[in-house]
Amino acid sequence: MTYPLVRLAQVDVGHLDLESFSRATGLHPELVRRLVALGLIDAWTGFSGGLCFPPAQVAAVGRLQRLHAGLAVNYASLGLVTDLLDRIAELEAALRTNTRWTGDRSWT
Fold this sequence. Notes:
- It is a single chain.
- The protein is elongated.
- It is mostly helical and 108 residues long.
- The protein has helices spanning 18-25, 29-37, 56-71, 75-102; strands spanning 16-17, 44-45, 51-53.
- This is Chaperone modulator CbpM.
């Protein structure tokens, strides 16, 4: 049985509306709508009918902006690139976990 050393506060960080999200990311609201339509960032329709974004999507947009600027990849191709990068990260994490459990040495 484990006991936490500190008590975690239950903080509801809420969500961002389109205007707040655009301001936080520095993107035009139309570009944000296009990224949502392409499935590159997650959003849902709120009670007012506008788009709502979880705060974690700000970091996702930052990643998309870095890939778009650094690799000169268009927004339609960013979905494929991010999916591949996520898959590589999952495989590396699984390899690290498997190596830790079996005690095998890494191939590098």
